[in-house]
Amino acid sequence: MDIQGLANATFKSAKKITECRSKVRLIMFAFAICSIFVEGKILWVLAILSMFAEAYTWYLLLKINSKKNLAHEFIRINIIQKAFGRKMPMDLSYLKAQVDDKELEKAEAFDEPNYYASKNENPKIKLVEILQESCFWTQHLYKASLEKSTSTALILFTFILITVIGFLSLVSPDENYGLARALMLLLMFAPLWDQIEKIVIFNSASSKLKLIDLNLKFKGKETDYVLFIFADYNAVISNAPLISDAIYEQEKPKLEKLWAERIA
Hints:
The chain is an all-alpha fold. The protein has one domain. The chain contains nine helices and no strands. It has helices at 3-34, 41-84, 89-96, 101-107, 123-170, 178-188, 190-219, 223-239, 245-263. It starts with a helix and ends with a helix.
């Protein structure tokens, strides 16, 4: 079983949970819009359901981060193994113990033994080439994700603005339901905050990866420095949101062509 397959299977599981979380956020958004047109017990039911839904999204976020961190650990070990040929059975055994049975079963389907293009036999040079390739791909995917998150944020802001205007125009002040409506409107902003957070992180991570790529180009001959850069690379990708499969598949042909031109 290829280590990259384990990473990909774990990432896939995290992305499915992310999709579930997005759907819950969408339901909460719909509840907030509906709250404009209802009152009484129904309004309070929507408010309470939205609070439970918000708590559930935080639980899902914990699961997403846990699986994402596990997948990045697999990637770290895979890079070390590909570059230095060093087997790490103890580390792998502990990581595999955290993988769900379903993910283990699917891991072989995600195997990619030739995931990295480098064929260099020198461990230090191979590590540099793997990191350069990873930085190049990930930086561009983060830029594409940044554009997607920006578009989503603008759409959400437009809907929220329309909803707030509708709320102010159609709903008369009512002390009995003011708290419930205020809560619904507040929770409606949660999806927008998610997108704004992604915009900030994707933008920062993209810039950092480009800088790491440049540092590898000019200081890649210094072994100790490369290991420090490797640590920086791991820190950047570990803190970044997941890249959607749709964006990856959309950008893959272009990035394959650009990388082939770069190493030619």
